[in-house]
Design a protein that fits this description.
- With about 375 residues, the chain is α+β, with helices and mostly antiparallel strands.
- The protein has four domains: about 80 residues, no CATH class; about 120 residues, Band 7 domain (Tetrahydropterin Synthase, Chain A), CATH 3.30.479; about 90 residues; about 30 residues, no CATH class.
- The protein has nine helices and twelve strands.
- The strands form four sheets. Strands 6, 7, 8, 9 and 10 form a five-stranded mixed sheet that branches.
- Strand 11 and strand 12 form a beta hairpin.
- The longest helix is centred in the last third of the chain and has 88 residues.
Length: about 375
């Protein structure tokens, strides 16, 4: 309705200006001013201006990633999809909502953020009383099918962010972080807290026609005093670990020295055993070699004796006996029983030997 009133006023002004311009121009030209003519020209101009404004107001272009809710006399009549849409001029009004992801972000310097909507970080406390600050990011969408309800219940997009996204996220972040100790949040393991907050926001957003795409705790800030206390505690813990490692290292060095000494002693023992075994093996091999040499020598002597024995004939033996005879007769012994014994030692005694014994006359047997 406001657009219609504005169009009527603007058209009327245009008509009045045309009438005044024509009247002044004709008067300066010395021509007779016709009220009917000037009035007609003014009305025609006003009507033309009104029609142009009506034509411009009769359509709207909805960009991709957006929807437009059409209100007629304050009542929602339809929702325009992206593209060219026609509407009643001056009467139908549109409220545009982005259906793309919208980013709301808190930080210590909102002016430096490139999010769609920015705000300051949230102050709260942990379950053990430590003061902290929370910086987080919320990404959400406005559901196109819920646009009519949103325009009736919440208002425009900035009003949706203010009433739902901002208020609910800051409340839940401040409230739920109180369930955790400072050490839990300081260690960086904040996934549990993040998931708890996201669960609550998702429920709230669904009830208002919004879709939660992502919630993330970017940083938890602590006081300088707490940071220093944690740092001192960490240093002490590291010192304890260092001393423990040193003790373990000393124990290891001791065990290594013992092991090394035992290994050296075992090495020496094995070396002694090896030397003794080597000597025994050497003696064994030497004995085996001597035995084998003796055996070979005995076999050679036996073969020689065998060859000599084969080569001896009665004539050779007799001949050798004659050559070796010293000219002495052999000693003949009798045992009185008719048996006689010739001593072979006298027979084969060399010529260089001492005087031969005198032969004993053979006794004459009794008649």
């Amino acid at each position: 309705m406001g657009q219609l009133i504005a169009a009527v006023i603007f058209s009327s002004l245009a008509a009045i200006l045309v009438i005044a311009f024509l009247g002044i121009a004709l008067a300066r030209a010395g021509k007779k001013v016709s009220a009917r003519t000037t009035l007609f020209a003014g009305l025609l101009t006003g009507l033309a201006v009104f029609m142009i404004m009506a034509l411009v107001s009769s359509y709207t272009v909805v960009q991709a990633g957006s929807v437009a809710v059409v209100k007629r006399f304050g009542e929602v009549v339809t929702v325009f999809e992206p593209g060219l849409n026609w509407k009643l001029p001056f009467i139908d009004q549109t409220v545009v909502y982005r259906t793309q992801e919208i980013v709301y972000e808190t930080s210590d310097n909102p002016s430096a953020s490139k999010a769609d909507y920015t705000d300051f970080q949230v102050d709260t406390a942990t379950s053990d009383g430590q003061q902290i600050t929370a910086r987080y990011t919320v990404r959400f969408r406005i559901k196109p099918q819920e646009a009519s309800n949103i325009v009736n219940n919440l208002g425009t997009e900035p009003e949706v962010v203010e009433k739902v996204v901002k208020q609910n996220s800051r409340v839940w972040v401040r409230t739920l972080l109180r369930n955790y100790t400072a050490s839990q949040l300081y260690s960086g393991d904040i996934r549990e807290a993040q998931e708890a907050i996201a669960k609550q926001l998702k429920h709230d957003f669904e009830a208002e026609g919004l879709e939660l795409v992502f919630f993330g705790l970017r940083q938890i800030g602590f006081t300088d005093a707490y940071k220093q206390a944690v740092e001192n505690k960490q240093i002490e813990a590291e010192n304890i670990i260092t001393r423990k490692n040193q003790a373990e290292q000393a124990k290891y060095e001791k065990e290594r020295a013992i092991t090394q000494a035992e290994a050296e002693a075992e090495k020496q023992r094995l070396e002694r055993i090896g030397v003794a075994q080597g000597e025994a093996e050497s003696i064994k091999l030497k004995a085996q070699a001597e035995a084998e040499a003796t055996l070979i020598k005995a076999k050679a002597q036996a073969q020689a004796n065998e060859l000599i024995a084969k080569s001896l004939t009665p004539d050779i033996i007799t001949w050798q006996a004659v050559i070796q005879w010293s000219g002495q007769y052999p000693t003949v012994l009798s045992n009185g029983g008719g048996e006689q014994l010739i001593l072979p030692g006298d027979l084969f005694q060399s010529s260089g030997a001492g005087p031969a014994p005198t032969p004993t006359p053979e006794p004459t047997p009794a008649p």
